[in-house]
Amino acid sequence: MCGGRLESLAERREVKVGNRSARVMDQFSRCAACAEEFYAPGQMDAALRLASDVIRRDEGLLLPEQIRQLREGLGLSQRAFERLLGVGPKTVVRWEKGSVFQNRATDSLLRVVAGFPQVAAFLAELHGVEMPQESARGMARAARGASGDPS
Fold this sequence. Notes:
three-stranded antiparallel sheet; 3 strands; elongated
């Protein structure tokens, strides 16, 4: 805006995600003249993803990829997985994108579903979700991925 020269930088700094924050390596540009900071397309999203992953690890929550692996291991669409768990529309999409954190109770439920196939089957019956036949094999794979330490 001021006409100064932009410098591309990478600094370890605090990045806020909602009411949480984490120190991550943040890439951005800063004007040498006025010190105004700018993000190129995708840089802010990358910083938010890094910060989200650090926060999840610090809080012991499953990572977005682990949630996606669990869902895919069950052979369910995002919508069917939401119905299985009894959560609202687009919730699983947001967890898998990393834009929303699951709470601890839901994280525990995800781990129980991953570790105990009969719980997934019970919830499917309770909520009218059709489970694919091959999901038993997928549940075993998902349990291995989601039951361990998320770090």
